[in-house]
Protein backbone atom coordinates (compact mmCIF):
# COMPACT_ATOMS: atom_id res chain seq x y z
CA UNK A 1 0.00 0.00 0.00
CA UNK A 2 1.64 3.26 -1.12
CA UNK A 3 -0.73 6.01 -0.09
CA UNK A 4 -2.18 4.75 3.17
CA UNK A 5 -4.63 7.64 3.59
CA UNK A 6 -7.85 6.15 4.94
CA UNK A 7 -6.32 2.70 4.97
CA UNK A 8 -7.38 0.66 7.96
CA UNK A 9 -5.29 -1.80 9.96
CA UNK A 10 -6.33 -4.24 12.65
CA UNK A 11 -3.79 -5.20 15.35
CA UNK A 12 -4.29 -7.80 18.09
CA UNK A 13 -2.37 -7.53 21.36
CA UNK A 14 -2.01 -3.78 20.84
CA UNK A 15 -1.84 -2.65 24.45
CA UNK A 16 1.76 -3.73 25.10
CA UNK A 17 5.04 -4.82 23.54
CA UNK A 18 5.30 -5.64 19.82
CA UNK A 19 1.58 -5.02 19.19
CA UNK A 20 1.78 -1.59 20.77
CA UNK A 21 4.85 -0.62 18.74
CA UNK A 22 3.03 -1.88 15.62
CA UNK A 23 0.04 0.35 16.34
CA UNK A 24 2.47 3.29 16.58
CA UNK A 25 4.29 2.36 13.36
CA UNK A 26 1.11 1.90 11.34
CA UNK A 27 -0.43 5.12 12.67
CA UNK A 28 2.82 6.89 11.75
CA UNK A 29 2.42 5.48 8.22
CA UNK A 30 -1.08 6.94 7.99
CA UNK A 31 -3.27 3.95 8.83
CA UNK A 32 -6.39 4.24 10.94
CA UNK A 33 -5.95 1.45 13.48
CA UNK A 34 -8.35 -0.74 15.45
CA UNK A 35 -6.47 -2.74 18.06
CA UNK A 36 -7.53 -5.22 20.71
CA UNK A 37 -6.11 -6.36 24.02
CA UNK A 38 -7.12 -8.68 26.83
CA UNK A 39 -7.04 -6.68 30.05
CA UNK A 40 -4.77 -3.62 30.17
CA UNK A 41 -7.33 -0.78 29.81
CA UNK A 42 -4.93 1.86 31.09
CA UNK A 43 -2.24 1.17 28.46
CA UNK A 44 -4.92 1.02 25.77
CA UNK A 45 -6.30 4.46 26.64
CA UNK A 46 -2.76 5.95 26.76
CA UNK A 47 -1.99 4.47 23.35
CA UNK A 48 -5.19 5.96 21.89
CA UNK A 49 -4.15 9.39 23.19
CA UNK A 50 -0.54 9.11 21.95
CA UNK A 51 -1.57 8.10 18.44
CA UNK A 52 -4.43 10.62 18.16
CA UNK A 53 -1.71 13.25 17.87
CA UNK A 54 -0.70 11.66 14.54
CA UNK A 55 -4.03 12.67 12.98
CA UNK A 56 -5.39 9.16 12.43
CA UNK A 57 -8.22 7.30 14.14
CA UNK A 58 -7.05 4.72 16.66
CA UNK A 59 -9.46 2.73 18.84
CA UNK A 60 -8.73 -0.04 21.30
CA UNK A 61 -11.22 -2.72 22.34
CA UNK A 62 -11.02 -5.34 25.05
CA UNK A 63 -11.38 -8.61 23.07
CA UNK A 64 -10.08 -12.07 23.95
CA UNK A 65 -8.73 -13.49 20.67
CA UNK A 66 -9.34 -17.03 21.94
CA UNK A 67 -13.08 -16.33 21.89
CA UNK A 68 -14.34 -16.75 18.31
CA UNK A 69 -17.64 -14.94 18.86
CA UNK A 70 -16.00 -11.87 20.45
CA UNK A 71 -13.48 -11.64 17.60
CA UNK A 72 -16.24 -11.90 14.98
CA UNK A 73 -18.25 -9.16 16.71
CA UNK A 74 -15.18 -6.88 17.04
CA UNK A 75 -14.18 -7.28 13.40
CA UNK A 76 -17.66 -6.72 12.05
CA UNK A 77 -18.04 -3.60 14.26
CA UNK A 78 -14.65 -2.38 12.97
CA UNK A 79 -15.68 -2.93 9.32
CA UNK A 80 -18.87 -1.03 9.98
CA UNK A 81 -17.11 1.87 11.74
CA UNK A 82 -14.03 2.15 9.48
CA UNK A 83 -15.48 0.89 6.17
CA UNK A 84 -12.96 -1.89 5.47
CA UNK A 85 -9.87 -3.65 6.81
CA UNK A 86 -6.80 -3.41 4.55
CA UNK A 87 -4.22 -4.95 6.87
CA UNK A 88 -4.31 -7.31 9.85
CA UNK A 89 -1.47 -7.99 12.28
CA UNK A 90 -1.88 -10.73 14.89
CA UNK A 91 0.50 -9.99 17.76
CA UNK A 92 -1.57 -11.24 20.74
CA UNK A 93 0.33 -14.06 22.39
CA UNK A 94 1.16 -15.67 25.73
CA UNK A 95 3.59 -18.17 27.24
CA UNK A 96 2.89 -20.80 29.91
CA UNK A 97 6.27 -22.60 30.11
CA UNK A 98 6.77 -26.03 31.65
CA UNK A 99 8.70 -29.17 30.70
CA UNK A 100 6.30 -31.53 28.95
CA UNK A 101 6.48 -34.03 31.79
CA UNK A 102 4.98 -31.37 34.08
CA UNK A 103 2.75 -29.63 31.54
CA UNK A 104 -0.79 -29.08 32.75
CA UNK A 105 -3.64 -29.44 30.26
CA UNK A 106 -4.70 -25.89 31.06
CA UNK A 107 -1.24 -24.51 30.19
CA UNK A 108 -1.27 -26.38 26.89
CA UNK A 109 -4.77 -25.25 25.92
CA UNK A 110 -4.40 -21.61 27.04
CA UNK A 111 -1.37 -21.16 24.78
CA UNK A 112 -2.85 -22.97 21.76
CA UNK A 113 -6.23 -21.23 22.18
CA UNK A 114 -4.70 -17.75 22.36
CA UNK A 115 -1.73 -18.02 20.02
CA UNK A 116 -3.06 -20.33 17.29
CA UNK A 117 -6.86 -20.28 17.51
CA UNK A 118 -6.57 -16.49 17.95
CA UNK A 119 -4.84 -16.18 14.58
CA UNK A 120 -7.44 -18.43 12.96
CA UNK A 121 -10.33 -16.40 14.43
CA UNK A 122 -8.93 -13.09 13.18
CA UNK A 123 -7.91 -14.29 9.70
CA UNK A 124 -11.18 -16.18 9.24
CA UNK A 125 -13.08 -12.95 9.90
CA UNK A 126 -11.00 -10.48 7.85
CA UNK A 127 -10.30 -12.57 4.77
CA UNK A 128 -13.78 -12.40 3.21
CA UNK A 129 -13.78 -8.58 3.02
CA UNK A 130 -10.23 -8.64 1.62
CA UNK A 131 -11.23 -11.17 -1.04
CA UNK A 132 -14.18 -9.03 -2.06
CA UNK A 133 -11.90 -5.99 -2.48
CA UNK A 134 -9.17 -8.17 -4.03
CA UNK A 135 -6.60 -6.56 -1.73
CA UNK A 136 -5.19 -7.11 1.73
CA UNK A 137 -2.07 -7.80 3.78
CA UNK A 138 -1.85 -10.08 6.80
CA UNK A 139 1.15 -10.44 9.10
CA UNK A 140 1.05 -13.13 11.77
CA UNK A 141 3.61 -12.94 14.57
CA UNK A 142 5.26 -16.31 15.03
CA UNK A 143 8.58 -16.86 16.84
CA UNK A 144 11.95 -18.52 16.30
CA UNK A 145 10.56 -21.05 18.80
CA UNK A 146 8.14 -22.09 16.06
CA UNK A 147 11.02 -22.72 13.64
CA UNK A 148 13.60 -24.37 15.91
CA UNK A 149 11.68 -25.27 19.10
CA UNK A 150 12.48 -24.11 22.65
CA UNK A 151 12.83 -26.50 25.60
CA UNK A 152 10.06 -26.05 28.23
CA UNK A 153 7.94 -24.45 25.49
CA UNK A 154 6.34 -27.36 23.63
CA UNK A 155 2.97 -25.58 23.83
CA UNK A 156 4.35 -22.22 22.66
CA UNK A 157 6.61 -23.75 19.97
CA UNK A 158 3.69 -25.81 18.60
CA UNK A 159 1.46 -22.74 18.46
CA UNK A 160 4.13 -20.69 16.68
CA UNK A 161 4.98 -23.50 14.21
CA UNK A 162 1.24 -23.78 13.56
CA UNK A 163 1.13 -20.08 12.68
CA UNK A 164 3.83 -20.64 10.05
CA UNK A 165 1.96 -23.52 8.37
CA UNK A 166 -1.29 -21.58 8.58
CA UNK A 167 0.23 -18.43 7.04
CA UNK A 168 1.84 -20.28 4.15
CA UNK A 169 -1.36 -22.20 3.38
CA UNK A 170 -3.41 -19.01 3.49
CA UNK A 171 -0.88 -17.22 1.25
CA UNK A 172 -1.32 -19.99 -1.36
CA UNK A 173 -5.08 -19.93 -1.01
CA UNK A 174 -5.58 -16.16 -1.30
CA UNK A 175 -2.72 -14.91 -3.49
CA UNK A 176 -4.96 -14.95 -6.58
CA UNK A 177 -7.37 -12.68 -4.65
CA UNK A 178 -4.67 -10.05 -4.17
CA UNK A 179 -4.02 -10.93 -0.53
CA UNK A 180 -0.51 -11.32 0.88
CA UNK A 181 0.10 -13.32 4.04
CA UNK A 182 3.44 -13.39 5.84
CA UNK A 183 4.80 -14.49 9.20
CA UNK A 184 7.40 -12.70 11.32
CA UNK A 185 9.50 -14.83 13.65
CA UNK A 186 11.22 -12.71 16.32
CA UNK A 187 14.01 -13.92 18.58
CA UNK A 188 14.45 -12.31 22.02
CA UNK A 189 12.69 -8.92 22.06
CA UNK A 190 12.73 -6.58 25.10
CA UNK A 191 9.07 -6.68 26.18
CA UNK A 192 7.15 -7.78 29.28
CA UNK A 193 7.20 -11.31 27.83
CA UNK A 194 10.97 -11.63 28.34
CA UNK A 195 11.19 -9.35 31.40
CA UNK A 196 10.43 -12.37 33.59
CA UNK A 197 13.74 -14.06 32.61
CA UNK A 198 16.20 -14.42 35.47
CA UNK A 199 19.75 -13.01 35.20
CA UNK A 200 21.32 -16.36 34.39
CA UNK A 201 18.88 -17.11 31.56
CA UNK A 202 19.30 -13.57 30.19
CA UNK A 203 23.10 -13.88 30.21
CA UNK A 204 22.91 -17.23 28.43
CA UNK A 205 20.51 -15.83 25.85
CA UNK A 206 22.71 -12.78 25.18
CA UNK A 207 25.82 -14.90 24.72
CA UNK A 208 24.08 -16.91 22.00
CA UNK A 209 22.98 -13.82 20.02
CA UNK A 210 25.67 -12.73 17.52
CA UNK A 211 24.55 -9.08 17.83
CA UNK A 212 24.88 -9.43 21.65
CA UNK A 213 21.63 -7.67 22.49
CA UNK A 214 17.92 -8.29 22.48
CA UNK A 215 15.78 -6.65 19.81
CA UNK A 216 13.29 -3.88 20.43
CA UNK A 217 9.55 -3.92 19.81
CA UNK A 218 10.05 -0.96 17.46
CA UNK A 219 12.46 -2.96 15.28
CA UNK A 220 9.86 -5.72 14.87
CA UNK A 221 7.12 -3.15 14.24
CA UNK A 222 9.16 -1.55 11.44
CA UNK A 223 9.44 -4.93 9.72
CA UNK A 224 5.69 -5.46 10.08
CA UNK A 225 5.00 -1.97 8.68
CA UNK A 226 7.23 -2.77 5.71
CA UNK A 227 5.43 -6.08 5.09
CA UNK A 228 1.98 -4.47 4.96
CA UNK A 229 3.21 -1.68 2.67
CA UNK A 230 3.39 -1.69 -1.14
CA UNK A 231 7.17 -1.89 -0.88
CA UNK A 232 6.59 -5.57 -0.03
CA UNK A 233 4.07 -6.08 -2.87
CA UNK A 234 5.85 -9.22 -4.14
CA UNK A 235 6.40 -10.85 -0.76
CA UNK A 236 3.93 -13.50 0.38
CA UNK A 237 4.20 -16.79 2.25
CA UNK A 238 7.50 -15.65 3.75
CA UNK A 239 8.70 -16.30 7.30
CA UNK A 240 10.99 -13.40 8.17
CA UNK A 241 13.23 -13.95 11.17
CA UNK A 242 14.26 -10.91 13.19
CA UNK A 243 16.51 -12.34 15.84
CA UNK A 244 19.97 -10.74 15.96
CA UNK A 245 21.36 -13.88 14.33
CA UNK A 246 20.49 -16.26 17.20
CA UNK A 247 19.39 -18.95 14.74
CA UNK A 248 22.52 -18.90 12.54
P1 LIG B 1 3.57 -8.83 25.67
O1 LIG B 1 4.45 -7.65 25.89
O2 LIG B 1 3.37 -9.81 26.76
O3 LIG B 1 2.14 -8.31 25.14
C1 LIG B 1 1.17 -9.24 24.80
C2 LIG B 1 -0.03 -8.51 24.23
O4 LIG B 1 -1.01 -9.49 23.84
C3 LIG B 1 -0.70 -7.61 25.25
O5 LIG B 1 -1.21 -6.47 24.59
C4 LIG B 1 -1.87 -8.46 25.76
O6 LIG B 1 -2.99 -7.74 26.24
C5 LIG B 1 -2.23 -9.20 24.49
N1 LIG B 1 -2.96 -10.43 24.73
C6 LIG B 1 -2.55 -11.52 25.43
N2 LIG B 1 -3.51 -12.46 25.42
C7 LIG B 1 -4.55 -11.96 24.71
C8 LIG B 1 -5.83 -12.43 24.37
N3 LIG B 1 -6.26 -13.64 24.75
N4 LIG B 1 -6.64 -11.64 23.63
C9 LIG B 1 -6.23 -10.40 23.23
N5 LIG B 1 -5.03 -9.89 23.53
C10 LIG B 1 -4.20 -10.67 24.27
O7 LIG B 1 4.09 -9.72 24.44
P2 LIG B 1 5.13 -9.35 23.27
O8 LIG B 1 6.47 -9.72 23.74
O9 LIG B 1 4.88 -8.01 22.72
O10 LIG B 1 4.70 -10.44 22.20
C11 LIG B 1 3.87 -10.12 21.09
C12 LIG B 1 3.87 -11.30 20.13
O11 LIG B 1 5.20 -11.56 19.70
C13 LIG B 1 3.37 -12.59 20.78
O12 LIG B 1 2.63 -13.34 19.86
C14 LIG B 1 4.65 -13.32 21.13
O13 LIG B 1 4.47 -14.70 21.18
C15 LIG B 1 5.53 -12.90 19.97
N6 LIG B 1 6.96 -13.01 20.25
C16 LIG B 1 7.54 -12.30 21.26
C17 LIG B 1 8.91 -12.44 21.50
C18 LIG B 1 9.62 -11.68 22.59
O14 LIG B 1 10.80 -11.98 22.82
N7 LIG B 1 9.00 -10.72 23.24
C19 LIG B 1 9.66 -13.32 20.70
C20 LIG B 1 9.04 -14.02 19.69
C21 LIG B 1 7.69 -13.86 19.46
P3 LIG B 1 -3.07 -7.27 27.82
O15 LIG B 1 -1.90 -6.38 28.02
O16 LIG B 1 -4.35 -6.51 27.90
O17 LIG B 1 -3.01 -8.53 28.61
From TrEMBL:
Catalyzes the NADPH-dependent reduction of beta-ketoacyl-ACP substrates to beta-hydroxyacyl-ACP products, the first reductive step in the elongation cycle of fatty acid biosynthesis. This is 3-oxoacyl-[acyl-carrier-protein] reductase. Pathway: Lipid metabolism; fatty acid biosynthesis. Its EC number is 1.1.1.100. The gene is fabG. PROSITE patterns: ADH_SHORT. Keywords: Fatty acid biosynthesis, Fatty acid metabolism, Lipid biosynthesis, Lipid metabolism, NADP, Oxidoreductase. It catalyses: a (3R)-hydroxyacyl-[ACP] + NADP(+) = a 3-oxoacyl-[ACP] + NADPH + H(+). GO terms for molecular function: 3-oxoacyl-[acyl-carrier-protein] reductase (NADPH) activity.
